[in-house]
């Protein structure tokens, strides 16, 4: 029996990968995920959130080396993270939700200490302190769709 296809090249398709003859031709997304749901706000924004947290943490970390902090810029970044986090929080997967809330609270605490008279420790500890560091690591390492393999709760 011969298979009809778009290519006559034998290495371009295998019989297992060829669609059934009764399947309609489609140039759009494959239908291999019929039970797929719309990604949550958490998963849609996670990578952007992670980058924002890393950027904020890196700038705050400069205080450890005695470098001056740009209070206005750090407050701006903290506000962006808080705004994004607010929309993400309701759909955070249970295995990372607690860590996510801890990160949001830590950045809020750090940013609230961005004022004259505050010590570098007041700004740095919420982000780099031992108490919150595991939450930052968990959120930074989290990947949507790999929740069951995370092992971090």
List the helices and strands and how they pair.
Blueprint: H1 41-61, H2 71-89, H3 94-112, H4 120-128, H5 133-141
Helix pairs in contact: 1-2, 2-3, 3-4, 3-5
Characterization of the model:
This protein is mainly alpha-helical and 153 residues long. The protein is 50% helix and 0% strand. It has helices spanning 41-61, 71-89, 94-112, 120-128, 133-141. Helix 2 runs antiparallel to helix 3 and helix 3 runs antiparallel to helix 4. Mean pLDDT is 80; it is low at 1-20, 29-35 and 147-153.
Give me some keywords for this one:
153 residues, mainly alpha, 5 helices, disordered N terminus
Shape: elongated
Radius of gyration: 23 Å
Helix content: 40-55%
Global structural class? mainly alpha
Major sheet details: none
């Amino acid at each position: 029996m011969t298979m009809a296809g778009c290519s006559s090249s034998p290495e371009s398709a295998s019989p297992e990968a060829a669609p059934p003859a009764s399947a309609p031709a489609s140039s759009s997304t494959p239908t291999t995920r019929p039970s797929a749901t719309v990604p949550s706000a958490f998963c849609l924004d996670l990578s952007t959130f992670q980058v924002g947290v890393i950027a904020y943490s890196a700038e705050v970390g400069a205080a450890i080396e005695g470098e001056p902090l740009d209070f206005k810029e750090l407050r701006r970044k903290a506000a962006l993270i808080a705004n994004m986090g607010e929309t993400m929080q309701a759909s955070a997967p249970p295995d990372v939700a607690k860590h996510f809330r801890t990160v949001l609270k830590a950045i809020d605490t750090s940013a609230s200490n961005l004022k004259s008279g505050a010590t570098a420790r007041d700004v740095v500890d919420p982000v780099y302190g031992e108490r919150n560091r595991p939450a930052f690591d968990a959120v930074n390492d989290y990947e949507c769709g790999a929740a069951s393999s995370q092992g971090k709760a």
